[in-house]
Amino acid sequence: MNKVLVMVAQRIALGLLTLFVVSAIIFLAVELLPGDIATEILGQTATPETVAAIRRELGLDQPAYIRYFEWLLGVVQGDFGRSLATDREITELIGARLLNTLFLALVAAAVSVPLAIGLGVMAALYRNSTFDRSVNIFTLSAISMPEFFIAYMLILFFAVRIGWFPSLSKVDLDQPLFDRLYAVALPAVTLTLVIVAHIMRMTRATIINLMSSPFIEMATLKGLPPWRIVVRHALPNAWAPIVNVVVINLAYLISGVVVVEVVFVYPGLGQLMVDSVVKRDLPVVQACSLIFAATYIVLNLTADILSIVSNPRLLHPR
Amino acid sequence: MTESTPTKAADPALDGPADTLEPPPARIHGWRAAWRELVKAPLTGKIGLVIVLVYIFTAIFAPVLAPYGETEVVGKQFQQWSSAHPLGTDNLGRDVLTRMIYGARNTVGVTFLTTCLTFVIGAATGLLAAAVGGWTDQMLSRIVDVLMAIPLLIFALLLLTIFGTSIPMLVLIVAVLESTRVFRLTRAVGMNIVVMDYVEVAKLRGEGLGWVMGREVLPNILSPLFAEFGLRFCFIFLLISALSFLGLGLQPPTADWGSMVRENAILITFGDFTPLLPAAAIAVLTIAVNLIVDWFLHKTSGLRDDH
C-alpha cells in the first residue's frame, strides 16, 4: 500500500510541474512576437511615445519573468487580468461561460461513457458478429466526420426538418434543469457521437487484447462459465486500461466542445476563445488556453492515478 | 520527404507476403507484386483506394474540371441547383461545384503538405533521439511531453493568435504540433532497431550518424510509419478543416471545404443540404484513407496506434 501512495504522490508532483511549465509556455509564447502587445494594439498608428505609454500602462516595461510571476499569482487567486478588446475583467467574462461549458461536457460525458463501454465490451465479446461489424462501420464513420458536419446534420434533421429541438442553444443560469437539458440536447448528442465512437473502438481493442492473455485461457480451460470469466478475471484487469481510454477521450471533449459551441452559438468558453482569437485578444486567449490545458492535465493525472490505484498487481504485491 | 511518399513506403511491405506465395522468385518485380496485392485486396480497401484516386485526380485537374473560375462571381446569391450551376451558387454568387473542385486542390493539398512536413520533423527528431540516445533523447522527449500536455486544438488556437493566420504559419504550426505524435512513434519503433547487431556493425564500420539514421534504421521502420502517415493525414485534415470552419485556417477567397460550410451555413436553417456537401467530401476522404490504413495494417499486422 505504501508503494502505491508513493507512486500517487510522484504522479501528483509531476502533474503540478507540468501545469507550471505549461502555464509558462502559454504566457511566454507571446514573447515570440516580433513586437509586443503594445505595438499589436496600436498597429499603424504606433509612435515611440504612445508605445512607451501603453507599455507602462500594461506593465510591459518590466522583464518577462516578473510579469509571468505576477500573472501566475493573479491566476491562482482567480484574477486573469483585463481583456484588451473590451477592457472588462476576464474573470467576469469567463465565469458563467465556464459553468455552461462544464454543464455541456458533463451531460455529454454522462451519456457517452456508459454507452460506449457497454457497446465496446459487447462488440469485443461478440467479435466478428453482425453486431460487431455494424458497430465498427458506425464508429469508423463517426470518427471520420468533422464535428461540424455531425452538428449541422443534426440541426438539419432534428431542428429544421422535424423541429423537435432548437437549432440554437440558449441557456442561462436560472433556467430549470429540464429546460437546460432540452437546450443542450443537440450539442450534447453531437459530442456524444464522437466520443462514443472513440471510446468504443479503444475499449473493444483493449478487451480483445485482454481476452487473449494466458490467465483468461487458463480460466476457460478450468471450465468456468463465461460470465464468471468476464466478471472475476477480465474486469479487474480491464479497469485500468478502460479508465485510461475514457479519460484520454474526454480530452476529445475539449477540442470538440470548441467547434460544437460555435455551431450552436452556445455561450461557453470555447466560443469565447474563438471570438478572442479572431479579435487577437491575447489575455483572454491565454486565460482560456490555461483553463483548457489545466483541465486536460488534471484529466490525464486522474487517469494515471486511477490506473495505479486499480491495478491488482500493485494492490496485492507478492 | 521521400520516406513518407506512399508508393515508396508501400513497396517493402507489399513485397514480403508475395514472396512466400511464389516459391522461386527471390525478388518479384515491384510493380507486379504491387498489382497482385491490389487484386487480392479486400473490397473495403479497393473502395478506399478508388475514392482517394478520384480525389487526387480532381485536385490535379481542378482548373480543367471546374466549369467556372475559383473566385468568379457568376450569378445571384444562393441560387438553386440548375443545369448552369449543378450545385447552385454560394453566399457571394460563386458556383458551388467549382469551389468544391478547387477545394479538393486547396484543402487536400495544404493537408498533404502539412502531413509531409509533420513527418520530416517528427521522423528526423525521432530517429535522432533513438540513434543518439542519452541526453539528446531526454531533452527531445521532455520537450515533446510538454508540447503534448496542451490539447492540440487549443495550442493551435493560441499560436494562431500570436502569429496570425497565414497559410505558411498554419502549415508550420500544425506540423510542429502534430510532429510530436510522429516523434513518439518513430522513437519507439526506432529504439527496437537501434539495438540490432547490424546497426552495431555499421557503427563499428565507422558510418556516421546520418547513415545509421537513414540507411540502417529508417528502412526498417517504414511500414509502421506508412500506416501512421495515413492516420496523421486524417487527423490533420480534420484539424485544418475545423480551423478553417472556425475562420482561422485557410482564408477567403481561397476555396476551402471547411470555410465553405461556414460561409453558407445560413442555408442549412432553411433545410438545404448543399452547404454540407463540402463537409461530406471531408468525411468521405477521411473514411477512404482509414479503409486503406486498415487494409495495410491488416496486411503487415504491424503496430496499431488508435490515437
UniProtKB/TrEMBL annotation, chain A:
PROSITE patterns, sorted: ABC_TM1 (PS50928)
InterPro entries: BPD_transp_1_N, MetI-like, MetI-like_sf
Keywords: Cell membrane, Membrane, Transmembrane, Transmembrane helix, Transport
Claim: Transcription is one of the keywords in the record: no
Alphabetical list of SUPFAM superfamilies matching this protein: MetI-like
Source organism superkingdom: Bacteria
Membrane topology (UniProt): Multi-pass membrane protein
Molecular function GO terms recorded: dipeptide transmembrane transporter activity
Cell membrane is among the record's keywords: yes
ABC transmembrane type-1 domain: residues covered: 98-303
UniProt name for this protein: ABC transporter permease
Subcellular location: Cell membrane
GO cellular component: plasma membrane
Family: Belongs to the binding-protein-dependent transport system permease family.
Transmembrane segments: 12-30, 102-125, 137-160, 180-200, 242-264, 284-309
TrEMBL record, chain B:
Transport keyword on record: yes
Stretches the record annotates as Disordered: 1-24
Locations listed in the record: Cell membrane
Primary location: membrane
Sequence ranges assigned to domain ABC transmembrane type-1 in this UniProt record: 104-297
Membrane topology qualifier: Multi-pass membrane protein
This protein's UniProt keywords: Cell membrane, Membrane, Transmembrane, Transmembrane helix, Transport
One GO process term, biological-process aspect: transmembrane transport
InterPro entries per record: BP-dependent_transpt_permease, MetI-like, MetI-like_sf, OppC_N
Residue ranges the record marks as coiled coil: none
Chain ranges passing through the membrane: 47-68, 108-132, 152-177, 229-250, 276-297
Alphabetized PANTHER family for the sequence: OLIGOPEPTIDE TRANSPORT SYSTEM PERMEASE PROTEIN APPC, PEPTIDE ABC TRANSPORTER PERMEASE PROTEIN
Protein name as catalogued: ABC transporter permease
Species per Swiss-Prot/TrEMBL record: Ferruginivarius sediminum
